[in-house]
Amino acid sequence: MGMTSRRPQKSASERTDASGTFRRGTPPPIAGRTLPLPLLLLLFVPGVLLALLTWSPGASAQDAPTEPTRFRLVGSRIAPPTTPQEVLRVLAYVELLDENERPVKGVSPDSAACTLGATVLDNPRFTPLAAEEGTAVVFLVDVSKSLKQNEFSRIRDALAAWADSLGEADRGAVMLFGERVRLVQDFTADKAALAAAIKELALTDNRTELHAGIAEGLRLAARGDEALPPRRVVVVVSDGIEDAPGGTSRDEVLASLREHPIPVYAVGFALPPLTNAKRDGLAVLGEFARTSGGALTTVEKPDAFQGAFETLRERINSVYLLAADAGAIVPDGKTHRLQVTLRVGSRTFTDGTDLRVLPLPGLLAAGASPDLEAAAVTAPESTTAVTGAPKTTSPSPQAAETPTPSPGRNLPLLALGAGVALLVLMALFRNGKRTPREKETPPAPEEPAAERTGAAPRIVAGEGFFLRLTVLKGADVSRHYDAVVTDRLSLGRSSKGNGMVLKGDMGISGTHCEFFLEKGRLFVRDLGSTNGTYVNGVAIVGPCPLSDQDRLLLGSTELRVHLPASASREDRKS
Asked: Environment class of residue 511 by beta-carbon count within 10 Å: exposed (0-12), middle (13-18) or buried (19+)?
């Protein structure tokens, strides 16, 4: 009693495991002992190698590529051959955006295809636009007195910062518009000259020739100077108001945009007081930007100008270049449909524009085919963005060429792949002969052919326009809403009296808006809804024309507008 018995300690050769079973020859625990040098090296070297494989300079969580959800064709050009061995090339500038409309960088598509008219272009090469290729930027500034002096000084500062950030291969020009359009600085790489021209800008005019300014800016950007970079953009700063009597019309600007496929990026003043004239002006400015392949950013506070300019500058500098050989195309001066298709993972994106192939001096002597029909290859019909691979002809090894990732990005992928493969092998070993139960999927309800196959919207002969709305944000993302608009079609949350019903969003009114046809064109009009109707981020007042790929915002639901290609052609004629 009171004494504690002590077990005799076991020797190192008689230690037991957790189950109490003796294990002779088991070494003592690692704690308190020094591992042999060979074992240390065996553990240390693989750890160092793994760290090197998974690290690249400057890598961080923010550098991880985001999955693109939107694809836009933001410009295109014909590049003539520079040597007798080269052929005509098509340059298409494309933009990949995430769900927050931010550029997605570091994308290497699984496949790329490009067609011009009925011809499949050869050897498509998809790469980020290199800084050494440069961009020619036209800064087009509204100098009417609709702004206050302190607000305009912020615009000058933001423009000066942009001009100062131009690269060695970039070129900039400054053009202003008010009661007339004036070029105050032609294209130059001299940042001091650009800064001086911007510093001299002042609010001097009482009226605004916005439409004439955009038309002249496009002509300037389309100039064929050999010293200018192939890529051109126009940056417009304005409140969108056009009040010059007898000035350039909206239709004339749209014709200029078709003639010169150059993107227009606009910074719109939405500063208070936001009058109906300003709302209407911003809606038209947004239409010009969308039609050209550019974008509109609205500014509601004076201190937001710098951020707006930085946002547009990032988008302009984050585009990709798809170059393809067009040796079978004859420069006949005609307009052809350029269609670009990319497959990134499980998603396939496609977008197109009209491109005029103008005759170029000496081009036929460089080897272009004299017979477009004889040289043409039948291209697959273009489709809207769907899930799956694009339907293209089998590419040659050159046609499948994609940019080679840098070693710093390639090695981590190899390490990750090896780890995944090891996990798969371990899982297979543990499962043994066990057969997993197959997941039973109930048969999908029968859908219309257009929804089932992703077929492009169409015009129903004698019945009107086929309209498709695809949910981008909100309930039922990726769901299609299809309807044929013959005269008028209302949309709302209520199933009473509406031809299109969107449920699940209390921000959508019972009868929210309506679509209607006028002179062969599709319009949308808000019907006094609680939260308003927005087209491409701008609240509409009165009828607003719709184009293919426009974005509608109703409540918290964002929808993509799909219109038939033939309807788009009719829109451009009107």
From this structure: middle
Torsion of CA 501, 507, 512, 513, to 10 degrees: -100
Instruction: Write down the H helix ranges in 54-190.
Output: 149-164
CA 18 to chain CA centroid, Å, is 60
User: Distance (Å, rounded) from C-alpha 97 to C-alpha 35?
Assistant: 53
Tokens for 555?
């409540």
Asked whether 144 and 208 are in contact (CB, 8 A), the reply is yes
Q: Is the overall model pTM greater than 0.90, yes or no?
A: no
User: Which range has the top average pLDDT, 267-271, 445-449, 566-570?
Assistant: 267-271
How far is 153 from 159, CA to CA, in rounded Å?
10
Is residue 125 within 8 Å of 320, Cβ to Cβ?
Answer: no
Instruction: Using DSSP bridges, classify how beta strands 459-460 and 386-387 pair: parallel, antiparallel or unpaired.
Output: unpaired
Four-CA torsion 124, 125, 129, 132, nearest 10 degrees: -120
The model's pLDDT over 333-363, given as tens digits with 9 standing for 90+, comes to 788 889 999 888 888 888 888 888 877 554 4
Q: How far apart are CA 141 and CA 239, in angstroms?
A: 10
Residue-wise pLDDT for 484-538, tens only, equals 888 899 999 998 889 899 988 888 999 999 999 988 889 999 998 988 999 888 8
Per DSSP, which regions of 275-434 are E strands? 295-299, 320-325, 335-344, 347-356, 386-387
* pLDDT reported for residue 469: 92
- Determine the number of helices (DSSP H) and then strands (DSSP E) in the chain: 11, 27
Residue 446 burial (10 A CB sphere; 0-12, 13-18, 19+): exposed
Q: How far is 392 from 386, CA to CA, in rounded Å?
A: 14
* Three-class DSSP category at 125: strand
Strands (E), 135-189: 135-142, 171-177, 181-188
Helix or strand holding residue 215 (H, E): helix 210-221
pLDDT for the residue 572: 37
**Nearest C-alpha neighbor of 523 from the set 513, 532, 512, 531:** 513
**Do the bridges between strand 513-518 and strand 521-526 make them parallel or antiparallel, or are there none, so unpaired?**
antiparallel
| Beta pairing partners, 394 | none
Give the bridge partners for 386, in sequence order: 348
Residue 166 has pLDDT above 80, yes or no: yes
CA dist 382 and 562 (Å) reads 13
State the DSSP H helix or E strand holding residue 276, giving kind and residue range, or none if neither: helix 276-292
Q: Which of 223, 285, 228 is nearest to 254 (CA)?
A: 285
